[in-house]
Amino acid sequence: MHQTTPRRPSPSVLSPLRGAIGLLALVLNTLFWCIPLFVLALVKLALPFEPVRRLLDHWLNALASGWVAGNGAWIRLALGTQWQVSGTDGLRYRGWYLVNCNHQTWVDIFVLQHVLHRRIPLLKFFLKQELIYVPVIGLAWWALDFPFMRRHSRAALRRNPELRNQDRETARRACAKFLRVPTSVMNFAEGTRFTPAKHADQASPYRHLLNPKAGAMAMALGAMGPRFEALVDATIVYPDGVPSFWDFLCGRVPRIVVQVRELPIPQDFFTSDYETDKPFRTRFHRWLAALWEEKDAQIEAVLSSRG
């Protein structure tokens, strides 16, 4: 008797189902961890005493770490992505880090959280003010003391230079809170996601990167001082094309390459004033440009060797 092998559904049929399951897992994981997080946030709001806040910050970070671990579980089980990660073995979970990365898609955030989870302390980002209104997760970011920054146009800054001081004060207050417990302060120096149109508009000298912006990184260094132990420089490459978040959920990202380097931060970066010290500002820009040239070369090397 002849037997036929049952036909498996094609990947194109399974992808939307996988995406729906991934999205459901993300939503349920978020709600599971956000409910106790919001309860602790209300306690923190009602009892604004330093010893209480220090204790609650540990608990809030632990809940956020549980959320990252939950996301990591469905990423490993459901997506089938091949991960090529290097440079994370020597990192320490206890301490303070400034983290820098190139930025191409919202997937970058999940990639960094997944790769650096329990390698370094919880990642905290500088966010656009508008993101506080994102349902559920916006309140979670607020509860975890993520700094919300207002984006001002160059014209607005020319009309009202005092706006720069508002941003610096926001960063200073946020970083003062980060000093309570070990924290990794995350910065996308490009300031926005890479696209070919933005690359052309900037006339960027880099092949795979936009021009880096030094302001946010300089503010964090000035506010945190030598508490930062090192710079964790991460480079993310999607050899098969930059995915959308839906592509990621659907398992359409065959391979992700993440290269991590732990680099020393020059000691004078902690004490110099980026806004008023012009020679230091020039030196800082050169340091960041050299970092960007190396990162651009890393990306080119990965893309040249694909396949």
Short summary:
This protein has about 300 residues and is α/β, with parallel strands linked by helices. The chain has ten helices and eight strands.
Write the layout of secondary structure elements.
Elements: H1 11-46, H2 50-78, E1 82-86, E2 97-101, H3 107-116, E3 123-125, E4 127-128, H4 137-143, E5 148-149, H5 154-159, H6 162-178, E6 184-187, H7 196-202, H8 215-224, E7 230-237, H9 245-249, E8 255-263, H10 278-304
Parallel strand pairs: 1-8, 2-6, 2-7, 3-6, 4-5
Antiparallel strand pairs: 7-8
Helix pairs in contact: 1-2, 1-4, 6-8
Molecular structure report:
- This protein has 10 helices and 8 strands.
- It has 307 residues and is of the alpha/beta class.
- The chain has a 6-stranded mixed sheet with strand order 1-8-7-2-6-3, with helices on both faces. The chain has a two-stranded parallel ribbon with strand order 4-5.
- Strand 4 (127-128), helix 4 and strand 5 form a beta-alpha-beta unit.
- Helix 6 (162-178) crosses helix 8.
- The longest helix is centred in the first third of the chain and has 36 residues, at 11-46.
